[in-house]
């Protein structure tokens, strides 16, 4: 049976291709070899932040559209694709970067990226709302129904509220309030949210996003912060209380790793105008999510390059997102031992994120989907004996191809995680 190997596919696609049954740990930074459990200095993290910020800015076209995804192997052609929510998320990380390092924002590029979203996705919704539509035209594959995603509205507020005074000719408080009104329209009386709406005005049934409610809640609080309109704060609190009550009987081990709810919870916990009893319920839920995340981390493995991550396949973004949530909620944790465990978890995860970043051009500063690849045997003619092995090899080839994909959200989440960690 061929073994999973962790190599730095980010810097050398050809290294150790002929080896099998061996998990390759590549060291030496110059050749992409991993160093484990570094005690990273602030300067090292800042250098990684700078590389990521540069990469993300380089992906914004003059039309304002990001280069959504690329592959580190130029021989692999990716089908056209785009994601509006992740476009908005990339703007959010650039906002974080400018807060962390004032003056870093490229106003021309960011303004063009906002205009692109506004001109291509914003539509009037009822009398006092703005819808943000994901259309088959914009997703570039021409397939699927048009969707209004709750998460797109939430991340729009998260990314645009801090920029309302910077780009007054593009966005206004009234525009943002209309997006907030649409989010409230998606909320049920008990605080739960619908995830999607179709053009005919019907809400999607069955599928529920884990992350959209936290994104919407965070966005509503940000909107309340600049408008002081209580309906937005009330809707945000109602959302978090619904999550707390609906998950009350779930154990910490089984609690979903909902990092966006942690970020939203931190915003409410840091605001003085909320009753302490409500805050305690929100914190109780958040601490269960934190314990769940800590329990999922790979802390020991014979495959040492996986240590600090959260995926046995070496996927990187699940680590970045969890660090984002832990960064936000860490100052509000009530238990000293939980704080210690959380900090240890974040330290290990940051090391994982740092060593998986691409250090060489033309993708310097980016992250791929995963840092692992399988050794694959030569193609064989299928027969009765080889069919099962061929199926396994095909799955491994699919993983290897996907592992080399770079997307803007992979970079955005890692950049946000690193910045949040530095700001602790």
Please describe what this structure looks like:
This protein has 13 helices and eight strands. With 424 residues, the protein is of the alpha+beta class. Strand 3 and strand 4 form a beta hairpin. Helix 8 packs antiparallel against helix 9 (276-296), helix 9 packs across helix 11 and helix 10 (317-329) packs antiparallel against helix 11. The longest helix has 21 residues, at 276-296. Residues 1-38 have low confidence and may be disordered.
Quick summary of this structure?
This protein has 13 helices and eight strands. It has 424 residues and is an alpha+beta fold.
Number of strands: 8
Mean pLDDT: 89
Strand order, sheet with most strands: 3-4-5-6
What is the rounded distance between the termini?
Answer: 44 Å
Stretches where pLDDT falls below 50 for ≥5 residues? 1-38
Give me the number of helical elements: 13
Rg over CA atoms, rounded to whole Å, is: 22 Å
Biggest β-sheet description: 4 strands, antiparallel
- N-to-C series of helices and strands: EHEHHEEEHHEHHHHHHEHEH
Helix content percent band = 40-55%
Please indicate the percent range of residues in DSSP E strands (runs of 2 or more).
Answer: 5-15%
Structural class: alpha+beta
Shape: globular
Key words describing this protein structure:
424 residues; alpha+beta; two-stranded antiparallel ribbon; 13 helices; disordered N terminus
């Amino acid at each position: 049976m061929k073994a999973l190997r962790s190599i730095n596919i980010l810097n050398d696609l050809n290294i150790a291709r002929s080896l099998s049954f061996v998990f390759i740990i590549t060291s030496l930074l110059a050749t992409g070899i991993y160093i484990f459990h570094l005690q990273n200095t602030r300067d090292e993290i800042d250098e990684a932040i700078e590389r990521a910020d540069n990469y993300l800015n380089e992906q914004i076209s003059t039309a304002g559209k990001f280069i959504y995804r690329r592959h580190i192997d130029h021989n692999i052609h990716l089908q056209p694709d785009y994601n509006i929510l992740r476009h908005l998320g990339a703007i959010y990380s650039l906002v974080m970067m400018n807060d962390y390092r004032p003056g870093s924002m490229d106003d021309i590029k960011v303004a063009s990226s906002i205009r692109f979203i506004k001109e291509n996705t914003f539509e009037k919704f009822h009398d006092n709302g703005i819808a943000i539509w994901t259309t088959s035209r914009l997703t570039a594959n021409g397939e699927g129904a048009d969707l209004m995603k709750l998460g797109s509205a939430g991340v729009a507020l998260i990314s645009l509220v801090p920029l309302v005074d910077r780009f007054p000719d593009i966005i206004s408080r009234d525009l943002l309030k209309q997006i907030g009104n649409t989010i409230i329209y998606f909320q049920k009386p008990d605080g739960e949210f619908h995830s999607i709406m179709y053009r005919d005005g019907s809400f999607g049934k069955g599928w529920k996003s884990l992350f959209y409610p936290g994104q919407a809640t965070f966005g509503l609080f940000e909107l309340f912060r600049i408008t002081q309109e209580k309906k937005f704060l009330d809707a945000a609190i109602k959302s978090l209380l619904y999550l707390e009550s609906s998950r009350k009987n779930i154990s910490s081990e089984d609690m979903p790793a909902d990092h966006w709810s942690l970020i939203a919870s931190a915003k409410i916990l840091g605001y003085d105008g909320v009753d302490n009893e409500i805050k305690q319920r929100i914190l109780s839920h958040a601490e269960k999510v934190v314990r769940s995340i800590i329990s999922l981390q790979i802390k020991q493995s014979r495959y040492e390059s996986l240590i600090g991550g959260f995926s046995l396949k070496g996927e990187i973004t699940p680590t970045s997102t969890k660090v984002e949530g832990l960064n936000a909620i860490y100052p509000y944790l009530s238990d000293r031992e939980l704080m210690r465990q959380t900090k240890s978890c974040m330290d290990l995860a940051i090391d994982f994120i740092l060593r998986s970043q691409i250090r060489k051009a033309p993708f310097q500063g980016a992250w791929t989907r995963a840092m692992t690849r399988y050794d694959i045997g030569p193609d064989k003619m299928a027969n009765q004996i080889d069919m099962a092995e061929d199926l396994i090899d095909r799955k491994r080839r699919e993983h290897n191809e996907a592992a080399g994909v770079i997307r803007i959200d992979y970079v955005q989440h890692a950049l946000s995680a690193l910045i949040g960690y530095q700001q602790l």
